[in-house]
Amino acid sequence: MKWKAHHLKWSLIGMLILLLVVYENDSYEIRTREVTAKAYNSLASQTDNEGPNIAAWGDRLEPGMKCIAVSRDLIPLGLDHKTAVTIEGLPGVYIVLDKMNRRHKNSIDIYMGNDKKAAVLWGKKRVNISWKVPKH
Known about the structure:
alpha/beta
C-alpha cells in the first residue's frame, strides 16, 4: 500500500511538471526571421556621443557580454529591450540591449566588446535569429 501511495504522489508531481511545461510552451510562440547581421565594438568611432559603452536603453556594455543591437523596425515584432535571442551560427543566447540608428532596417549588430579584429572577421552576413513572444 505504501508503494502505491508513493508511486501515485510521484505520478501526480510528474503530471504537474508536464502541465507546467506544456502551459509554458503554449503561452509563447517562437519567431524566426532572416536579418542582416554585422558586428560592433565599444569604440567611440562606432557609437554616438553618449559614450562607447552606453547602449541606447541606458545599459552599460562590457566586453564579453553576449548582446545585440536591433534595428527599430524589429522592436514591434517582439525584439524589445532584454529579449533573449539565438543567432544562427553562434553559440548561446544573446540579449537585446541596444537599438540601431533609424536608418537601419531588418538588421542586428552583434556586440564584440573591444575586439575590432573579431568584428571585422564577422563582416556582414544574412542569418536567422529566433526569439519567444507571448501569445495573445
